């Protein structure tokens, strides 16, 4: 059980442990209710750090016995660990503990999932396995012996021996305990091999439950592509004889980069054309890459403490984004990433949960695996790369790997590498790591006799604990277009360092049209009242695909806001301009599909809030519907042509080209359904031979309120497939008419297949409700109540997933007083619960503060 008064941990309190761990041996005697773990750990005083109290973390473990150098000891046990008198020099600690994996529902430490044993140790789960200095700066080599009757016994590193009922593993690379892993079960293998460029052969395996063997091929291809990419781009090779991936059904997150034994949420690795969509395939490819890339950025070089989490996560996200843009379309990937950033990170950065990319305090570190640490963390690295240039970035990364291999490093170490490699002073740049909040960038322009001047002003609004902000370094990519649409001045990287700063472009023959923040060169809100004609001009001519998309997006946003606030009609000028882009067959279908997408309702709420307007979820929803109807009517004459261009004639492949066509096809079908009442969607559903087509048809039918028969058919077809059933649960809530969404969700929580202890299924229902903006914010408060009911129910079992899902309430203050009061009531009801977990209580406390 957690302590009553949660402790806050501060970055400024960091102290080394005081001992080094030279070597760890673990023996696991697995049994569901009584697993015994024997540990033998060699400790030596750390010459660099003064010895203090000898404290080992340990939670929910029963100590059976402990010895130091063979002599029995009786440590003082606390709820967080144990304290013990120890000799002055080096010594050997041995302990035997007992734990009960079958009753571990938190999915942290050693737990069971569908008959298999598996572990999740990041961030602080190893302490639920045995007593240990469970902190990332303590790195050691591990030898593991597993004793179990189950056929497959896996741990980190290389296998060193096995026999009937046992197996042994040794990991030669020193690692922190959070990278420890063990998996045991009746598993099937999808094997392959990879030869590194220095000629080392590596055995690759994807381990799955019987029946899932047919869903491994794509993950394996992605793994091999990732291994090649890291060799080619960063010169990084894999460093063990085997690389194992395991798919687990019960998992709180996407996946985990344990050394040599990555553990994946089965949704993040299993795929077949019949059961997974193109978007699933792309996501799996990027998560496989992400976890693999951690082998160097995270494992070989790890974090000194959890405040440095972005050191591994921001960098690894940045690396997986680069991988995807190299393999697929860089423009499409950038647009998708920015749309995600605005949808997930901006609300966090502009609400009560705002925190710096490198936080300075926390109660529960699990609450800091956030969009800010991950996605904004990656943006910060992207800015660094833009500022120093590609070549210097590559040089700095080489230096980072050389200098810090084997280290538990900090953001200071990371920035020093860039300073040493480039001679730049990055002290101001470092504010991106310490200041929370999204900077707002406003622009003024002046034209005077051939000289065009842009003057920028940056303001970062206050965030919790940070009332005043200093100016940050903002790379602003700008290109200038001449009146005929040509590029008058190609992209230039302006480096803004002051609160207000001007940049002049000389020698121009005519007043240009600026394209500002190309490629979204910094994670800021650009505040500029651009005349609609100018945006339309950029939509037609901008050479930068991101800004071309963003011009259209801004026009759509502004048109929608006029509809929401003033009851305006859909903006026919924008729709016509968009139509011209859509007809341009030289443009990538994937890009045209993105152009057809409207801002999400949550994004519109966010933008209204940024403009100081109280968002009305029903008005937002109705305007979005009206806009989509107007687009359908206006584009009707070209829908056949577009559908023909979206046609795929080759056998199914989830590559960029085919996926792009299918996403254009999906967007066209959505418009068509508004005109034909669902006839085309019904035909596509009936004929579909892959999940992308089947699901896009089903989505259209649900939105049209015409999906009864198809939902039943889908259920009957897929009831044996857990991952597809998650889609069945989620989609009928996410795409439901908002007026019905809370009731729909409630009814589905009573469905016999609603296994609420499984995080994927729980999220499929309650997470989907939170994603249906107007449904969640239903004026009766039924959405709020239902979510709170279930969060209260889940919290005692799985605090981590409960706490993460509380963020659905993070925007509560921006709505009308009625909705505010109802959300506050639910938050207070959660906060008041006896025995609430530390995770959830920290989140709710921050959201309410
Ligand atoms: N480190 C994992 C990743 O980003 C995420 C994770 C965190 C998984 C905590 C489980 C628990 O790849
Ligand atoms: Zn990661």
Structure, described:
Helices cover 41% and strands 21% of the residues. By secondary structure, it is an alpha+beta fold. The strands form eight sheets. It has an eight-stranded mixed beta sheet, with no helix packed on it. Helix 16 runs parallel beside helix 18. It is globular and about 85 Å long. Bound molecules: phenylalanine and zinc ion. The site of zinc ion (ZN) has 4 residues, from helix 3.
Summary keywords:
849 residues; alpha+beta; Immunoglobulin-like; Neutral Protease, domain 2; eight-stranded mixed sheet; five-stranded mixed sheet; 27 helices; 31 strands; 41% helix; binds phenylalanine; binds zinc ion; metal-binding; protease
| Main beta sheet strand tally, sense and closure | 8 strands, mixed
Q: For the record, give the distance between the C-alpha atoms at the N and C termini, rounded to a whole number.
A: 25 Å
Strands of the widest sheet, in order across it, are 6-5-9-3-2-12-15-14
Number of domains: 4
User: What is the C-level CATH assignment of the largest domain?
Assistant: Mainly Alpha
Total beta-strand segments: 31
**Overall mean pLDDT:** 97
Assembly state of the chains shown? single chain
What does the radius of gyration come to? 27 Å
Bound ligands: phenylalanine, zinc ion
Low-confidence stretches: none
SS field, number of helical segments: 27
């Amino acid at each position: 059980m957690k302590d009553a008064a949660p402790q806050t941990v501060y970055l400024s309190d960091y102290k080394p442990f005081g001992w080094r761990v030279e070597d760890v041996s673990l023996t696991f005697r697995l049994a569901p209710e009584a697993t015994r773990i024997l540990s033998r750990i060699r400790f030596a005083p750390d010459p660099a750090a003064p010895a203090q109290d000898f404290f080992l973390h340990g939670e929910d473990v029963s100590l059976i016995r402990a010895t130091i150098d063979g002599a029995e000891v009786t440590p003082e046990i606390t709820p967080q660990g144990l304290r013990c008198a120890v000799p002055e020099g080096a010594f050997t600690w041995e302990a035997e503990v007992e734990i009960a994996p079958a009753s571990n529902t938190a999915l942290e430490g050693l737990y069971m999932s569908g008959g298999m044993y598996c572990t999740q140790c990041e961030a602080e789960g190893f302490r639920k396995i045995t007593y240990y200095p469970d902190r990332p700066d303590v790195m050691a080599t591990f030898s593991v012996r597993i004793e179990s009757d189950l056929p497959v016994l896996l741990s980190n590193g290389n296998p060193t021996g096995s026999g009937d009922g046992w197996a042994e593993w040794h990991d030669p690379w020193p690692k922190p305990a959070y990278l420890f892993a063990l998996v045991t079960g009746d598993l099937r293998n999808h094997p392959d091999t990879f030869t590194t460029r220095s000629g080392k052969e590596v055995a690759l395996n994807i381990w799955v439950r019987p029946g899932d063997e047919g869903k491994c091929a794509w993950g394996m291809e992605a793994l091999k592509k990732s291994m090649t990419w890291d060799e080619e781009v960063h010169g990084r090779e894999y460093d063990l004889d085997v690389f194992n991936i395991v798919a687990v059904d019960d998992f709180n997150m996407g996946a985990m980069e344990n050394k040599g034994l990555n553990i994946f949420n089965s949704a993040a690795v299993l795929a077949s054309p019949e059961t997974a969509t193109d978007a699933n395939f792309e996501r799996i490819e990027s998560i496989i890459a992400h976890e693999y890339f951690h082998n160097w950025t995270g494992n070989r070089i790890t974090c000194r403490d959890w405040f440095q989490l972005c050191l591994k996560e921001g960098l690894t996200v940045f690396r997986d984004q680069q991988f995807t843009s190299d393999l697929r379309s860089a423009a499409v990937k950038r647009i998708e990433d920015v749309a995600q950033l605005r949808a997930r990170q901006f609300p966090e950065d502009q609400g009560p949960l705002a925190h710096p990319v490198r936080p300075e305090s926390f109660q529960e570190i699990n609450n800091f695996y956030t969009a800010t640490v991950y996605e904004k963390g990656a943006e910060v690295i992207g800015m660094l790369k833009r500022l120093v240039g590609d070549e210097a970035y590559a040089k700095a990364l080489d230096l980072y790997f050389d200098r810090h291999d084997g280290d538990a490093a900090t953001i200071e170490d990371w920035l020093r590498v860039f300073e040493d490699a480039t001679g730049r002073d990055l002290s101001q740049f470092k504010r991106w790591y310490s200041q929370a909040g999204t900077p707002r960038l406003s622009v003024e322009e002046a034209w005077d006799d051939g000289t065009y001047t842009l003057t920028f002003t940056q303001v970062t609004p206050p965030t919790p604990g940070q009332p005043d902000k200093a100016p940050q370094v903002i790379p602003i990519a700008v290109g200038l277009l001449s009146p005929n649409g040509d590029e008058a001045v190609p992209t230039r990287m302006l480096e803004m360092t002051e609160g207000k700063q001007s940049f002049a472009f000389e020698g121009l023959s005519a007043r240009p049209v600026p394209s500002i923040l190309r490629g979204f060169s910094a994670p800021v809100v650009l505040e500029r009242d651009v005349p609609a004609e100018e945006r339309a001009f950029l939509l037609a001519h901008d050479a930068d695909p991101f800004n071309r998309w963003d011009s259209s997006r801004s026009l759509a946003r502004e048109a929608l806001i006029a509809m929401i606030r003033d009851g305006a009609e859909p903006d026919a000028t924008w729709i016509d301009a968009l139509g011209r882009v859509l007809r341009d067959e030289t443009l990538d279908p994937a890009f045209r599909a993105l152009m057809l997408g409207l801002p999400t309702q949550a994004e519109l709420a966010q933008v209204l809030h940024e403009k100081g307007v109280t968002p009305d979820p029903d008005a937002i929803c109705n305007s979005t519907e009206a806009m989509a109807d107007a687009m359908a009517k206006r584009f009707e004459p070209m829908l056949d042509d577009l559908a023909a261009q979206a046609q795929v004639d080759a056998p199914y492949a989830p590559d960029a080209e085919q996926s792009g066509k299918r996403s254009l096809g999906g967007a066209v079908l959505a418009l068509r359904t508004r005109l034909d009442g669902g006839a085309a969607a019904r035909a596509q559903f009936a004929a579909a031979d892959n999940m992308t087509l089947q699901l896009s048809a089903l989505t259209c039918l649900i939105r049209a309120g015409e999906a009864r028969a198809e939902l039943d058919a889908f259920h009957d077809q897929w009831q044996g497939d857990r991952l597809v059933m998650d889609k069945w649960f989620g989609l009928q809530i996410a795409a439901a008419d908002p007026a019905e969404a809370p009731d729909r969700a409630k009814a589905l929580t009573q469905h016999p297949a609603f296994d609420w202890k499984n995080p994927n299924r729980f999220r499929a229902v309650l997470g989907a409700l939170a994603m249906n903006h107007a449904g969640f914010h239903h004026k009766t408060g039924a959405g709020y109540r239902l979510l709170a009911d279930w969060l209260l129910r889940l919290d005692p079992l799985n605090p981590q997933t409960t706490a993460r899902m509380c963020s659905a309430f993070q925007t509560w203050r921006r709505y009308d007083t009625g909705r505010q009061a109802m959300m506050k009531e639910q938050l207070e009801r959660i906060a008041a619960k006896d025995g609430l977990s530390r995770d959830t209580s920290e989140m709710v406390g921050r959201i309410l503060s």
